Amino acid sequence: MPNLLKMEILQNSKKSLPKTAAILKKGGVVICPTDTVYGFLADATNKKAVDKIYKIKRRPKSKPLPIFVKDLKMARQLAEIDEKQAKILRKFWPGKYTFILKRRKIYSTLNLTAVKNRVLYGVDKNTIAIRIPKHVFLQKLLKKINRPLAQTSVNISAQEPLKSAQAIFKVFGKNKLIGLIIDGGDLKDAKPSKIFNLTKGVLTRTR
């Protein structure tokens, strides 16, 4: 597909990984295919980066953003997860399932690259929605950047997720707040992540 847009468009490949990580580390927003739908990604430890997602998507700041993490160890650094909960999470992760958990107030064990003041942005004060995606490119990206990523479906808030590169280009192609699009092709059969509340140790479907 010819690149007629100002923003850069790269194919979903190993060669795109360094550029994607570099943009995220500098506070940029990336559009990337996932194991569900296309998603906006930003460094969850960077307030300006997370604010860009809200602005691009026209999403109310009262609505928290889910977080991608690279593994269960990182999830435990951000959320309170006991052994019973961990056993449940291992059955579903990596995968298309997002779990709402109690958020750690103080990340005393947090040891993530470039996390200043141990603060996450775009998340609820008491809970946090976390997922480990089952997507090769995303898994490699999360390992490379070693930071939690704020994420949400690519669409204007309250509208249906955009599932093709063409649809994304049409709506967001001229948005200067987006640093890069990873073109993963048409995800016409993709569905958003299923969300479960696990704060009390029992699975409760919320979406």
Describe this entry's structure for a reader:
Helices cover 27% and strands 21% of the residues. It has a 10-stranded mixed β-sheet with strand order 1-8-2-3-7-4-6-5-9-10, sandwiched between helices. Mean pLDDT is 90; it is low at 1-5 and 113-117. Helix 1 (17-25) packs across helix 5. The protein is globular, with a radius of gyration of 16 Å. The chain has helices at residues 17-25, 47-57, 72-78, 83-92, 136-145, 165-172; strands at 8-11, 29-32, 39-43, 67-68, 97-102, 127-131, 149-153, 178-183, 194-197, 204-205. It has 207 residues and is of the alpha/beta class. It is built from 6 helices and 10 strands.
Brief sketch in words of this structure:
Helix content is 27%, strand content 21%. The protein is of the alpha/beta class.
Describe the structure using short key phrases.
disordered N terminus; 10 strands; 27% helix; alpha/beta; globular; single chain; ten-stranded mixed beta sheet; 6 helices
